[in-house]
Amino acid sequence: MLSLYHCRGARSLRVLWTLNELNLLRTPAEPVEYKLFALPFPPRVHDKSFIEINPLGTIPYLHHDRGPGGSPVGITESCAGPVYLASTFTHSPSQQLNVAPHEDCYAAFLNWNAHADATLTFPHTLYLRYVKFEPHKNLQQAGEEYRKWGLSRLRLLDATLADGREFLCSDRFTVADVNIAYALLLARGVGLEDKLQPQTLEYLRRLTAREGYLRSLEEERRADEEAGIDPVVIFENS
Q1: Contact 128/188 with Cβ under 8 angstroms?
Q2: I need a surface site. Which of 166, 200, 212, 226 has the fewest CB within 10 A?
Q3: Is-above-0.85 flag for pTM?
Q4: Helix ranges restricted to H, the chain
Q5: Domain with CATH 3.40.30.10 in the chain
Q6: Protein fold of 2-97+211-227
Q7: pLDDT of 111-163, one tens digit each?
Q8: CA-to-CA distance for 34 and 6, rounded, in angstroms?
Q9: What is the pLDDT of residue 120?
Q10: How does residue 238 score in pLDDT terms, banded at 50, 70 and 90?
């Protein structure tokens, strides 16, 4: 069984989205079974017991009670979770959300998954922290500088999408698209939508129209309601 500890709109959305995409590909008789635990944001502040589950106190935390080797698995990185899920729960060519080492696009696939968080998501999280969540620290100017820096970091993605491709790797939707899309959601959420290149904005619109993404939004909303959580809005229109 899988357990996903999640805050609405946070980076754990990458993992939840992947789970929904996998289950749309699989037969109803063989779903990827998981339990979603909704937490208040940030959980390390509002739910101290979560530290006993994930000592970092961060989300996502994806727990698999019996990983491929038979031992429990715990994943704390939002871009690693989708790659793990796509690699572990894919059983046929029609369910390929990952890219295999023998494929030409494998190196690019690895790079996009790392690029999504280390290069694209990071500056916008600092903007949100200093401008929205911790304005009392008087570091708003630093947050604004990180927002500008984050826009400049989109150059590689802009250039790649300029050839009109629908997806980033191997002419199909993969978890690289999930991970990159979340970074673009943050960029849009911190007010950069009108500064995104047309091909990049259209790419985001295509991805967020997917049923797997829309199901994820509805699932996280229900989970918050059931847990009695008044969600913190990390960014609008998530």
Answers
A1: no
A2: 226
A3: yes
A4: 13-25, 43-46, 50-53, 80-88, 106-115, 122-127, 140-152, 155-161, 175-187, 198-208, 211-227
A5: 2-97+211-227
A6: Glutaredoxin (3.40.30)
A7: 999 999 999 998 888 888 878 878 888 878 877 887 788 888 999 999 999 99
A8: 12
A9: 95
A10: very low
